[in-house]
Amino acid sequence: MKYNFDQVFDRKDTSSYKYGRCKLYFGTDDLLPLWVADMDFASPDFVIDAMKKRLDHPVLGYTLTDEAFYASILSWMQNRHQWAVEKEWIRHLPGVVPGLVFSMLSLTRPGDKIVVQPPIYPPFIYTVKQNDRELLFNELVETNGTYEMNLEELEQLAKDGAKMLLLCSPHNPGGMVWSAETLKRVAEIAETYGMIVVSDEIHADLVLEGKHIPYATVSEAAKNHSVTLMAPSKTFNIAGMSMSVALIPNVKIRQKFNRLVDHLQAASGHVLGFEALKAAYTHGADWLDQMLEYLQGNIQYVVDFITQNTPEIKPMRPQASFLIWLDCKGLEMSDKELKDFFVEQAKLGLNMGPSFGPGGEGFMRINVGTPRSVLEEAMKRLQLAHASLVRKTV
Ligand SMILES: Cc1ncc(COP(=O)(O)O)c(C=O)c1O
After folding, report:
1. How many A from CA of 33 to the centre of ligand 1?
2. Last residue of a domain, which of 220, 253, 283?
3. Is the pLDDT confidence value at 391 over 80?
4. Mutate which of 125, 127, 172 to test ligand 1's pocket (most atoms within 8 Å of Cβ)?
5. Ligand 1 closest atom vs CA 323
6. What is the pLDDT of residues 261-276, one digit of tens each?
7. Less crowded by CB within 10 Å, the N or C end of the chain?
8. Does the C-beta of 43 come closer than 6 Å to ligand 1?
9. Mean pLDDT across 29-45
10. Per-residue model confidence as pLDDT tens digits over 155-200
11. How many domains does the chain have?
12. Which residues, 6+ apart, have CB-to-CB distance to 293 below 8 Å?
């Protein structure tokens, strides 16, 4: 079957975060929102059909994770990532960000040092602070239009007592797919100094270049000191289904984590969410391959357009996912001016770089998980705004 990713849906009356929060975030609704990281494509038909089928039964009571739930995860991880996950490792969660918080609460204490690698998806930063842990930055280093880890500094932080690393793999916002070599080195450092690694792999299925390597597979040590967080939410555009999993091979870590989830009474799942996950992981391969091809086209289009028409902006080509990190420093604007330029002149709603922490200054993040025609409109707006900027300066 050939899926159609060109179809445009009006999401305005669906309580969508991407549309409903514009006024609060940008001060206006009069813009094209290309920020919050969900896509504008229809969720797959087989996912929707599975939920409809469940609704044929009118009793929607408390629902368990059944055998098919575990089997669908095991086969997806094996087929897509060549990772032999075991059923006992799996814990259902309401979200990956809750998984980061549950990891911190169950495996560290207030005041403990936790490392994150900015620029990074903002909840990595604020959840550490909100939960009274000490936030340590191990800033990524920009090299040849992409980011690399500063592994010497990471080692120093671990040596100085950091208890946990919140790893983002693939990385948001830069879209890096970390190499086996980098991940192995992280694992050596973590193992040497007793640091737990929580690996957020929510973008793992969306790799466009290279291959995603689950952190827990890079060594026996990595397997034993890690929590991996995964979800079908980004992959199949079902973020509203509150359906994620933690995969924890080490029994001691798993017991602590599970105990915390139980004590927070955060264990129950959504009857339709379970159906969505099972259908996605069971029938999703073909849809995903087609969607990734469409995304590649979108990325190529935006990167080419910006490079040719607004050369002061340098897009970082993502190796994974539907977000492009735009280096706007060539526009020589402050972050406030950059925001005004995008919101007021271009009428585009993008995520602003500083919210991603140190290294985010002068950047914007654009979401290209949307029909091509929407991106064409966005690029037209950017080109017009840019032209008026150039006119002003001559
Ligand atoms: C790296 C990363 N982790 C987690 C999330 C959100 O996860 P959830 O909605 O399951 O809490 C996102 C969403 O953009 C993300 O990019």
Report:
1. 18
2. 283
3. no
4. 172
5. 16
6. 999 998 888 999 999 9
7. C
8. no
9. 96
10. 999 999 999 999 999 999 999 999 999 999 999 999 999 999 999 9
11. 2
12. none
Residues 6 or more apart whose Cβ sits within 8 Å of residue 153: 138, 139
CA of 241 to the centre of ligand 1 (A): 13
* Whether residues 80 and 66 fall in one domain: yes
Cα dihedral 316, 320, 322, 326, rounded to 10, equals -10
Domain membership of residue 79 (yes or no) is yes
The answer, yes or no, to whether any atom of ligand 1 lies below 6 A from the CB of 237, is no
Residue 83 reports pLDDT greater than 90: yes
Identify whether residues 209 and 122 lie together within a single domain: yes
Distance 158 CA to ligand 1 centre (A): 25
286 Cβ neighbours under 8 A, 6+ residues apart: 1
Q: Which tokens hold the place of 249?
A: 């091979």
Torsion angle of alpha carbons 171, 25, 299, 310, nearest 10°?
A: -120
pLDDT of residue 228: 98
The residue nearest atom 14 of ligand 1, judged by CA position, is 37
CATH of the domain at 39: 3.90.1150.10
Range of the domain at 122: 46-283
Nearest CA to ligand 1 atom 1: 172
pLDDT at 393 over 80: no
Q: What confidence tier does 394 reach under pLDDT thresholds 50, 70, 90?
A: low
Instruction: Determine the distance separating the centroid of ligand 1 and the alpha carbon of 172, expressed in angstroms.
Output: 9
Q: What pLDDT, on a 0 to 100 scale, did the predictor assign at position 71?
A: 98
Residue 6 resides in a domain: no
310 lines ligand 1 (CB under 6 A): no
Q: Using CA atoms, how far apart are residues 164 and 221, in angstroms rounded to an integer?
A: 15
- The whole-number pLDDT of residue 389 equals 83
Q: What is the 392 CA–ligand 1 centroid distance (Å)?
A: 40
CATH number of the domain bearing residue 263: 3.40.640.10
Same domain, 115 and 227: yes
d(CA 34, CA 48) in angstroms, rounded, equals 24
- Report which of residues 267 and 307 the model is more confident about: 307
pLDDT of res. 78: 98
Cα(390)–Cα(38) distance, integer angstroms: 33
Q: Do 112 and 257 fall into the same domain?
A: yes
